[in-house]
Amino acid sequence: MKEIHDFKVLERRQLGSRYFALVLEHGGRMQPVVPGQFVEVLVEGSREVMLRRPISVHDVDEERGTLTLLIQIVGNGTRKLAELQAGDKLNMVYPLGHGFSLPLSTFHSPLSTLLVGGGAGIAPLLHLSKVLKAKGVSCTILLGGRTAELIPVRDEFEPYGRLCIATDDGSLGHKGLVVEHPAFAEPYDMIYTCGPTPMMKAVARSAAERGIRCEVSLENMMACGVGACLCCVTDTDEGHRCVCKDGPVFDISTMKKWYK
Fold it and tell me: Which class is domain 3-96?
């Protein structure tokens, strides 16, 4: 069930020059959030920003009634959000979209999964990795970026699986693309990915060739968040679909037109 609610900013953490995190408290009974779902944030006090901004949910603490957003500063809206401080209010519509599905134990236990994130696309994978570990699913978490600075909060993933890093410049981990990392070629029961479109398409093509089930979280421009404005439509094997309502997570079995 969707809810419009004023969250209280408990903490704002600056993460290098391009990212920051907001820890937000509901103050009541928070709606359940599936890994991969997102929120639509109201940016107040800005004449340049008229529409809400879609942001992936990075982490959820159901006991505390908090959720965390990992935000990359890319424009007027995110720069305005970066000015928020502890005690401020942030109005959000949540939870939105279709999130990641959890694998069923049909082959062996524990199942083996690969989570591939690039840049700001690492955001929804933390919540996913926590949920998978809680269900006894084995995770390899492969994060990539042009430089080490562009892979924030990587240490937060370490408790939830085997962490692997790839950087274009070799400043951290394997030098090269995530699909070139040795861990990427290992056998898995399921692959999840979120990040730049060329990266996700490469991951999807490889997964299809290897017969591995794979889900991609698309990052199309989204305005309304509920499928009304149609600005985020993508072409799938099943016809045109709204990324905000039918996604952002799609199984690649329906996305051959997109990744080939």
Answer: mainly beta
